[in-house]
Amino acid sequence: MARPKRTPTAGSRERVFAAAAAEFAAKGYAGANMDRIARAARLNKAMIYYHFKNKAALYRAILRDMFGAVRTEVAAVAASGLEPGEKIRRYVEGIARAAEARPHFPPIWLRELAEGGEHVDAATLEYVRDVLTALGGIVNEGRRRGVFQPVNPMMLQAGIIAPLMFFLATARLRQKIERAGPSPLAVSRDTIVAHIQRLTLAQLEGRIS
Amino acid sequence: MARPKRTPTAGSRERVFAAAAAEFAAKGYAGANMDRIARAARLNKAMIYYHFKNKAALYRAILRDMFGAVRTEVAAVAASGLEPGEKIRRYVEGIARAAEARPHFPPIWLRELAEGGEHVDAATLEYVRDVLTALGGIVNEGRRRGVFQPVNPMMLQAGIIAPLMFFLATARLRQKIERAGPSPLAVSRDTIVAHIQRLTLAQLEGRIS
DNA sequence: GTCTATAAATAGATAGAC
DNA sequence: GTCTATCTATTTATAGAC
User: To the nearest whole angstrom, how far is the Cα of B154 from the nearest Cα of chain A?
Assistant: First the structure.
């Protein structure tokens, strides 16, 4: 990430990055194989180590790109002059957009949750906290204006990203379940985002308990 | 997992099972190491292969135990004579209980979601479908009685397990984030379960959109 | 049932030519 | 920048003794 495109390099760094993201998403950190990454990038292992110090550094670069993108989306929403309810809607939409621009995003995030952020370095952790802080700011703004109830930002965030990652990551699995027997459960991307937006606002507007 | 306890075996199979569950939870399928599993079980690798055909079979046994437990909990709820709203509450509670009885459950489930059920065999898939079918049955019962709105069971299920696994799996990570800076976000187990119960019922009772 | 020893394959990482 | 060749460590799995 961040570097002039197609100069002498002919984009080999970008190819490594993309191939690695797909590999880490499919196999997890420990299960990812440097040789497979090289082949998928139409290069060889040595080229990976030319661009990245080692496996861990390569993975960290991918994590940083993911959470950096989320932070960027969210920061734009927080800085906008929109009313709090609309900010919440765009907050959800922004996370969905950052995730959809990166097919590896939902699987990697789910795996990272599973291992308690094992590979999350300080810089990435900062991004994560910024996102949570921005959400907290929107909630506080809504409270001051009397349109939101007090809600724990962590609960809210869990209610947003958990179902979102679930849906985006399981498109394939859901098809597998459907094929195995009768359970018509296809749900479109827009339906999901709209649903999560409504669910989040219902909490903030005190329509839940 | 099904088998007479402490006969000649002195529970070595159970020790392998437990150690493997912890290892798969921490490292994922590909990252799990048979030698580490053996050491954690205070045995050697050969004993793993005495009890289980290979790594894949060992993992499958753990998956089956997990989803079998969920199915058992859920089936009891569905068969009870309780009113639909209470069934939904106990459905959520039952899944939480099955997960809490197995510390490896949330991480493994999240990872399995991440890779689209790569290691889910036909028998386990059957359990998963049974759980979803049971939920659909409760929803239909509520609709017939006029207390529930029509809701896609997959959406409902996602809204339950995704946040639940998120919270149960990230207790450690959330602490890490808190330590790194100010964001008071500790949430208790009961708060989470109650929250998810209310959220689910709010959807079914049409209080969302 | 439980162990040691080891086969056979695969992994991450680097040296050095071009 | 890109490659081949290779070192070294690790890993799944099995053979065979007790």
Answer: 6
Contact (CB<8Å) B111/A116: no
| Chain B residues touching residue A155 (CB < 8 angstroms) | 187, 192, 195
Average the pLDDT over A5-24 and give the result.
Answer: 84
A43 sits within 7 Å of strand D by its CB? yes
Is the pTM for the entire model greater than 0.90? yes
Query: How far is residue A49's CA from residue B76's CA, in Å, rounded to a whole number?
Result: 55
The model's pLDDT over B10-30, given as tens digits with 9 standing for 90+, comes to 799 999 999 999 999 999 999
Q: Do the chains contact at B111 and A108, CB–CB below 8 Å?
A: no
Q: What would the two tokens of residue B176 be?
A: 């890490």
* Beta carbons of B134 and B78 less than 8 angstroms apart: yes
* Alpha helices (runs of H) in chain A, residue ranges in sequence order: 12-31, 34-40, 45-51, 55-79, 84-100, 105-114, 122-144, 153-169, 171-180, 189-204
Can you read off the two tokens belonging to residue A57? 């550094």
The Cα–Cα gap between A153 and B193 comes to 16
pLDDT, one tens digit per residue, over A125-149 is 999 999 999 999 999 999 999 999 9
- For A207, the closest of B126, B161, B207 (CB atoms) is B207
How many angstroms is C1' of D2 away from CA of A31?
26
Query: For residue B33, what is the nearest residue in chain A, using CA coordinates?
Result: A30
Kindly state the tokens that stand for B200: 């689910």
Residue B4 to chain A, least CA–CA distance (Å): 32
Return the number of other C-beta atoms located less than 10 Å from residue A39's C-beta. 14
* Residue of chain B whose Cα is closest to the Cα of A136: B183
Task: Determine the average pLDDT of the residues in B95-112.
Answer: 97
Q: Out of A128, A136, A185, whose CB is closest to B154?
A: A185
Q: Is B179 exposed, middle or buried (0-12, 13-18, 19+ CB in 10 A)?
A: exposed
Contacts of B204 in chain A (CB under 8 A): none
Q: How many CB pairs under 8 A join A and B?
A: 173
Contacts of A97 (CB under 8 A, 6+ apart): A73
DSSP label at residue A43:
S
Asked if A111 and A163 touch (Cβ cutoff 8 Å), the reply is no
